[in-house]
TrEMBL record:
GO terms for molecular function: hydrolase activity. Its cofactor is Mg(2+). Keywords: Hydrolase. The keyword Protein biosynthesis does not apply. PROSITE patterns: NUDIX (PS51462), NUDIX_BOX (PS00893). CDD domains: NUDIX_ADPRase_Nudt5_UGPPase_Nudt14 (cd03424). It comes from the Bacteria. This is NUDIX hydrolase.
Length: 180
């Protein structure tokens, strides 16, 4: 199997939130696709944060594109040359005030939508977390912290209380890891 070839590439726009690129591509059979749009986004990190009391730390925030509030795991983008591990520890501390003395456990690194997006999500498990700080939110962040018993998460997923895909997939990856 051969890959596609980029014939021409230009930016429709660039923003701090991501870029939109327009490519013309040649398929392996010679067919040309004009105006193939690619969303360039930064990689991001997220984590299942589990306290010593076996509660999961969740954040609730408004998501403009979906026009609704979502119960999610803490997440964010690395800043500068920050490692993924340092980025998730910083994001968890800033969004929730929780920290841990243990290293984050890498659960996986996955492309979000490789057909049209360039970014990956890197998912961690953080254990033995405890609240040590107040939130340090960015001016555009409005986040409520929720502690949910580990045993209640699957019911919340089943009934739609938790319906954000990356939270659901991270939970099931962490469950698999913890059951080993």
């Amino acid at each position: 199997m051969n890959s596609w070839k980029t014939i021409n590439s230009s930016y429709v726009f660039k923003t701090p939130f991501g870029n939109l690129r327009k490519d013309d591509c040649e398929l392996p059979n010679g067919q040309i696709i004009e105006n193939y749009y690619v969303n360039e986004y930064a990689d991001w990190v997220n984590a299942i944060v589990l306290t010593k009391e076996k509660q999961i730390v969740l954040v609730k925030q408004y998501r403009y594109a979906a026009q609704d509030f979502f119960l999610e795991i803490p997440a964010g983008k690395p800043e500068g040359n920050e490692s993924y591990e340092n980025a998730i520890l910083r994001e968890v501390r800033e969004e929730t005030g929780f920290i841990t003395e243990k290293e984050p456990i890498l659960l996986g690194e996955f492309y979000v939508n490789p057909a049209t997006q360039t970014n990956k999500v890197i998912t961690f498990l953080i254990v033995d977390a405890y609240k040590a700080f107040e939130q340090e939110l960015d001016p555009t962040e409005f986040i409520d912290v929720h502690l949910v018993d580990l045993n209640d998460i699957e019911c919340m997923i089943a009934n739609g209380e938790i319906n954000q895909l990356f939270t659901v997939s991270a939970y099931y990856m962490s469950k698999s890891y913890l059951n080993k």
